Amino acid sequence: MSDPLTGPGGAASPMRTSPAPSPYGRPGAGPGSSANLADILERVLDKGVVIAGDIQINLLDIELLTIKLRLLVASVDKAKEMGIDWWEHDPSLSSRARTPATRPVPAGEDQPAVEGEAGREAGWEQHRREEENR
Amino acid sequence: MNGPWHSYVYAVGRDGGDLDAAAAALTGFGGAPLRTVAGDGLTALVSSVPADDFGTDGLTERMADLAELEALARVHHEVVEAAHARTTVLPMRLATVYLDDARVRAVLSERAAEFSELLSWLDGHAELGVKVYADPVRARAEAAPAAPTAGSGRAYLRQRRDQRRLRDDAYRAAGAVAGAVRDTVAPLTRGVVAHRPQQGELASGPGENVANEAYLVPRTRVREFHQALAGLTGSDAGVRVEITGPWAPYSFATRPAESGAA
Fold it and tell me: PROSITE patterns per the record (chain A) (predicted)?
């Protein structure tokens, strides 16, 4: 089979001459190019064979990446369960996190503020009411 | 000291020429040619990547940026998909990088028995994704005026209660559909893996994803799978069912519990 050192590593490699800004994308539609990014990410990052490569990404960084992605493609509830709530202080994410219609809440009377998601929802309603009564 | 190039592994299959043909027809990151690396009856689909960009620091930096991560993920995925179109492959997780081809060969040897068994299990199968969404906003829009009118606190609370009831109904209906999906496709599938429901900025379409599952389906029964679920898609105003794929068997590359009939 091929030898890595005589492979595409020559001076004429397209790697070195690819235009910025993102040389790793590819122009033109491939077979999977129409697939939803979230569907792709959950598969290439969360699934697939894990074999120990020679290049190890820092564990802490992987963890951070995973948390960020879970917030993007997966469940905020899960992150809450893990005690992670930094997105509440992140303006780019908090508006999404506070969208009221994103999870089931047991029907019933309006609750006083309590811990967690229900508390945030109650807080949101409180806020709404104050706005309306103004 | 690292060389200037590393070997990036996209997927592993059996020897026999299918992956050689795939390699000849495709390019990898940065448009670099693909090649195959063989060992112990297995073949890895590989391309050379610059050590600077695909070393620890380079990869960490790139994967922390969503746009860069998307570019990486899409190229990786396209190569895996194209290989899967030709033969049975085990997709590798994103960013599986070795110092050189000799290291790739060594890993093929170490894992030969496990990979061969998995490939046999996956032979002739593809992965199909099914996502079920509850869409309480749509259910609500059909049942009641959307915007809360200014009024007494009591009227507001009553309205909120009604909305919550509608929302709960939508979630219950979606849960029932999700269960029906599982029951319907069980005889057509060899395995099932539950993914986390998608939620957040990348989640697509209206409603909330309440079930997100991947099924391992014989390639010859993919059409049947779609037909079996046709009656469940769009049967309820507050529920949406989305089928994706066929995918390479990403979700089954580590062997899950089997389910359904063979």
Answer: GAS_VESICLE_A_1
CB within 8 Å of B32: residues ≥ 6 apart: A8, A13, A14, A15, B47, B48, B49
Closest CA in chain A for residue B118: A49
Q: Please check whether the domain covering B125-252 is classified as CATH 3.30.300.130.
A: no
pLDDT above 80 (res B140): no
Residue-wise pLDDT tens digits, B149-189: 566 888 888 988 888 888 888 888 899 999 999 999 999 99
Domain boundaries, chain B: 5-122, 125-252
Say what the pTM is: 0.72
For B45, the 3-state DSSP assignment is strand
Best residue in A34, A55, A117, A131 for a mutation probing chain B (most B CBs within 10 Å): A55
DSSP code at position B161: H
Question: Using CA atoms, how far apart are residues A75 and B210, in angstroms rounded to an integer?
Answer: 10
Q: For residues B240 and B185, give the distance between their C-alpha atoms in angstroms, rounded to a whole number.
A: 17
Bridge partner residues of B14 (DSSP): B42
3-state secondary structure of A106: coil
State the smallest CA–CA distance between residue B70 and chain A in angstroms.
Answer: 7
Of A14, A61, A74, nearest to B32 by CB-CB distance is: A14
Q: What is the pLDDT of residue A41?
A: 86
Interchain proximity B250–A129, CB inside 8 Å: no
Q: Give the ipTM of the model, two decimals please.
A: 0.87
Could you give the C-alpha distances from A5 to A11, A71, B25, B56, B99, in angstroms and in order? 12, 41, 21, 20, 11
Map tokens 């020679």 to a residue: A54
Q: Edge-to-edge strands of the sheet including B191-195?
A: B191-195, B208-218, B125-134, B239-247
Tokens 């709960």 sit on residue: B168
For residue B74, list chain A residues with Cβ-Cβ distance below 8 A.
25-26, 30, 32-33, 37, 40
Backbone angles phi, psi at B96, to 5 degrees: -95, 105
Calculate how close chain B gets to A47, using CA atoms only, in Å.
5
Interface test with A, best of B118, B202, B213 (most A CBs within 10 A): B202
Kindly identify which residue of chain A lies nearest to residue B214, measuring between CA atoms: A43
List, for residues B7-27, the tens digit of each pLDDT value: 999 999 999 889 999 999 999
Nearest-by-CA chain A residue for B54: A55
- Chain B residues with CB-CB distance to A98 below 8 A: none
